[in-house]
């Protein structure tokens, strides 16, 4: 009886040891699988970045060749305006699949004329709102069924991000040098009675310290999402505006060869119907210059808005998306093109 009990204990001990060994081996295999997946994901991520970098260089090449052959005219019939659909990358990307399996590596993208949209940085110059450009934005908001009164708020917000020039020449000392004019400090009473608009441009209400009277320099607008800092805007409005406005580094003109009827109507102060007729005529034959436009559509451009339009472009948006196996990466970039070279101003990954 005692021997039988010892045999039973030995069997149970053997089973426990076997279970423990299986658990340890399974855990090791699981850790190895996790490490393999992690290394694989890192490899996919690196490959996607290299593919998108190559696509970005390819877009720069297309735009550089275009500026050599376009005669200073950019329109939607040029090679850069052709959208790249889903293109399989079987021969260019190692995806770990057999030759008989269908590849999931693909690339798509497009180049968009950034000057086909209204530039928010046109709304102010040297910290002063531009009345004409503010009216253009108000008309654009009206065309998109958004409250046009928001245009003044946006212009004030953009003006508050720009440094204001020092007015006056200052006082000339005995040595002949010009002493800078120092703005007076604001008293507590005057700061307390200032309007909300004055507070919006960064004037401090606390004059207890000398530095508190200085104007606050807000960060410049860099993307349309910055409109959410302006009272009255919502994410739904931004989704409606994203194809019609842009934030470019400096004041720009609107390319009438690539812009939409909504932006053209606002810029030229014409009806949406007239803008649609102009767009239809442009699709048949692009505009070579201002004289060609006025010859085909007389009276649509006035002396007031002739300086705000053009028929060529210096800024382009580049959008690319690569899919590799179970992951994807999307890149948006802003490119500045000149007659000498092209330069990427920023890149954002999603």
TrEMBL record:
<keyword id="KW-0653">Protein transport</keyword>
<keyword id="KW-0812">Transmembrane</keyword>
<feature type="region of interest" description="Disordered">
    <location>
        <begin position="161"/>
        <end position="207"/>
    </location>
</feature>
<feature type="domain" description="T2SS protein K first SAM-like">
    <location>
        <begin position="116"/>
        <end position="250"/>
    </location>
</feature>
<dbReference type="InterPro" id="IPR038072">
    <property type="entry name" value="GspK_central_sf"/>
</dbReference>
<dbReference type="GO" id="GO:0005886">
    <property type="term" value="C:plasma membrane"/>
</dbReference>
<dbReference type="InterPro" id="IPR049179">
    <property type="entry name" value="T2SSK_SAM-like_2nd"/>
</dbReference>
<protein>
    <recommendedName>
        <fullName>Type II secretion system protein K</fullName>
    </recommendedName>
</protein>
<feature type="compositionally biased region" description="Low complexity">
    <location>
        <begin position="187"/>
        <end position="198"/>
    </location>
</feature>
<keyword id="KW-1133">Transmembrane helix</keyword>
<dbReference type="InterPro" id="IPR005628">
    <property type="entry name" value="GspK"/>
</dbReference>
<feature type="domain" description="T2SS protein K second SAM-like">
    <location>
        <begin position="254"/>
        <end position="300"/>
    </location>
</feature>
<keyword id="KW-0813">Transport</keyword>
<keyword id="KW-0472">Membrane</keyword>
<dbReference type="Pfam" id="PF03934">
    <property type="entry name" value="T2SSK"/>
</dbReference>
<keyword id="KW-1003">Cell membrane</keyword>
<comment type="similarity">
    <text>Belongs to the GSP K family.</text>
</comment>
<keyword id="KW-0997">Cell inner membrane</keyword>
<dbReference type="InterPro" id="IPR049031">
    <property type="entry name" value="T2SSK_SAM-like_1st"/>
</dbReference>
<dbReference type="Pfam" id="PF21687">
    <property type="entry name" value="T2SSK_1st"/>
</dbReference>
<dbReference type="InterPro" id="IPR045584">
    <property type="entry name" value="Pilin-like"/>
</dbReference>
<dbReference type="GO" id="GO:0009306">
    <property type="term" value="P:protein secretion"/>
</dbReference>
């Amino acid at each position: 009886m005692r021997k039988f009990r010892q045999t039973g204990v030995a069997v149970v001990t053997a089973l426990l040891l076997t279970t423990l060994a299986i658990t340890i081996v399974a855990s090791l295999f699981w850790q190895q699988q996790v490490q393999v997946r992690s290394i694989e994901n890192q490899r996919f991520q690196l490959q996607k970045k290299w593919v998108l970098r190559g696509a970005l260089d390819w877009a720069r090449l297309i735009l550089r060749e275009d500026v050599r052959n376009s005669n200073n005219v950019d329109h939607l019939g040029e090679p850069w305006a052709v959208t790249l659909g889903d293109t399989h990358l079987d021969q260019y990307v190692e995806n770990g699949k057999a030759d008989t399996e269908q590849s999931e590596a693909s690339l798509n993208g497009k180049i968009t004329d950034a000057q086909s949209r209204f530039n928010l940085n046109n709304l102010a110059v040297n910290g002063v709102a531009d009345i004409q450009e503010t009216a253009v934005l108000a008309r654009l908001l009206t065309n998109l069924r958004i409250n046009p009164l928001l245009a003044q708020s946006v212009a004030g917000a953009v003006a508050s991000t720009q440094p204001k020039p020092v007015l006056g020449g200052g006082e000339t000392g005995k040595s002949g040098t010009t002493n800078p004019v120092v703005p007076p400090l604001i008293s507590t009473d005057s700061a307390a009675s200032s309007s909300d608009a004055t507070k919006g441009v960064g004037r401090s209400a606390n004059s207890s310290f000398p530095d508190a009277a200085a104007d606050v320099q807000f960060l410049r607008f860099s993307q349309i999402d910055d409109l959410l800092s302006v009272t009255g805007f919502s994410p739904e409005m931004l989704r409606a505006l994203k194809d019609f406005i842009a934030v470019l580094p400096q004041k720009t003109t609107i390319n009438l060869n690539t812009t939409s009827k909504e932006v053209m109507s606002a810029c030229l102060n014409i009806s949406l119907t007239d803008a649609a007729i102009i767009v239809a005529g442009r699709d048949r034959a692009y505009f070579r210059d201002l004289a060609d436009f006025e010859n085909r559509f007389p009276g649509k451009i006035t002396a007031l808005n002739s300086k705000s339009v053009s028929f060529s472009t210096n800024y382009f948006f580049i959008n690319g998306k690569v899919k590799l196996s179970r992951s994807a990466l999307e890149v948006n970039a802003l490119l500045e093109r000149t007659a000498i070279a092209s330069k990427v101003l920023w890149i954002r990954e999603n």
